[in-house]
Amino acid sequence: MPAPSIAIIGGGPCGLILARLLECKGIDYVVYERDGNVNSNRDGGSLDIHLETGQLALRQAGLFDAFQNHARYDDMALAISDQHGKKLFELGQGRENPEIDRRELRGILLDAIPKDKIKWGHALSSATSSKGDRVVLRFANGVVASGFKLVVGADGAWSKVRPLITQATPKYTGKTYLEWVIDYSHPLYEKTAGKVGAGSLISIGSGKNIIIQRQGNQSYRAYFGLQVPEILFRNGTNDLQEVEATRRLLLSDFYVDWSEEYKDLIRQATNFRAWPLYTLSADDLGWKPVHGVTLAGDAAHLAYPGGEGVNLAMTDALELASRIAEHGIEDLNRAVQEYEADMFPRTIEKILESTVMADVMYSNDPKAFLHCIGA
Ligand SMILES: Cc1cc2nc3c(=O)[nH]c(=O)nc-3n(C[C@H](O)[C@H](O)[C@H](O)COP(=O)(O)OP(=O)(O)OC[C@H]3O[C@@H](n4cnc5c(N)ncnc54)[C@H](O)[C@@H]3O)c2cc1C
């Protein structure tokens, strides 16, 4: 059987909405996803989906109604406080950026794609091509696939498609989030719900932050934003299983000058998951088009998480699918060239904004953050 025209590597928000858009346009494709099956644990926090980017892509994919069934408009509320818990600013719910859990978004997209178009348990190990030839994909499960007219790397931060296009690799930002989920059975739940309510509370001070965000199931995710060496929470020098040791470290070395309510969060944390933050730089964008390959979403432009990542990823998918539909599968290289020429400037602007956002999130001054978001 001939290969489908387009191979999408990665079934995250970018790869799946691209698949759905191609499906709507009657263009043949296949998605290769590393996760073993549809129920694999794809955890992660709530995402705000913006009107003119993420929501537009969902509308064009015919999925806006399905999105609305899960969108949480009340969780758009945002409060900013200092490290003493004093609220400095509250942003109401009149915005157009409703929240959705990552898992719900994935479910909506998966329901909109024929099951046989997704190859689960296919972790790409390498993508190679010799001059002018089509790309050969080798997967960890032993499968080798080739013959595609276009390979789209939507495989996130550590893309295995990216080396075909650029030598750029993500760099550690010096910043890590430690995440802890507070569910209703936890003794601190009521107090947290009383303090944060709907939406998110961002507290900033002494070069650190704590973000507490309500999720779709009403639990709260707390993120402790730290500036630490890359290896501290990565290579076992501070084993996250040793929750007590991590708590002690946070209390003695990081949040010593924060108020007791924040220290209680740390004292009563039952586990920590580390998210060391890596980024590509704006200089990494602008590669010369490569025949038969392109990148989209985090694979193309991994940035500090400032609320834009998933929206940029879905916009990439929308733009790429539109160009492919316009030029047809006989002229995919033209479609890719136009897509990339549009994507570079659009994305560079957001990467630069996210860098500024990262600086103020880890500052001594919560008012700098307010200034940054125009409050
Ligand atoms: C702590 C944290 C908080 C964030 N908060 C927000 C937020 O509030 N708002 C926001 O907009 N963005 C946020 N982001 C960023 C956002 O998660 C990403 O920008 C977005 O998920 C990018 O989508 P993507 O599809 O390009 O990549 P991903 O979501 O990373 O998806 C990539 C997919 O590819 C698969 N894959 C990876 N490698 C392979 C391989 N070798 N072979 C096959 N498949 C592979 C993965 O399993 C995954 O399904 C946050 C990120 C972090 C780390």
Automatic annotation (TrEMBL):
> Where in the numbering of this chain does the FAD-binding domain appear?
6-327
The record's keywords, sorted A to Z, are:
FAD, Flavoprotein, Monooxygenase, Oxidoreductase
Secreted recorded as keyword: no
Q: Which Pfam families match?
A: FAD_binding_3
Keyword Isomerase applies: no
Q: Which GO terms describe its molecular function?
A: FAD binding; monooxygenase activity
Which InterPro entries does this chain map to? FAD-bd, FAD/NAD-bd_sf
* Record protein name field: FAD/NAD(P)-binding domain-containing protein
Taxonomic lineage of this organism?
A: Eukaryota, Fungi, Dikarya, Ascomycota, Pezizomycotina
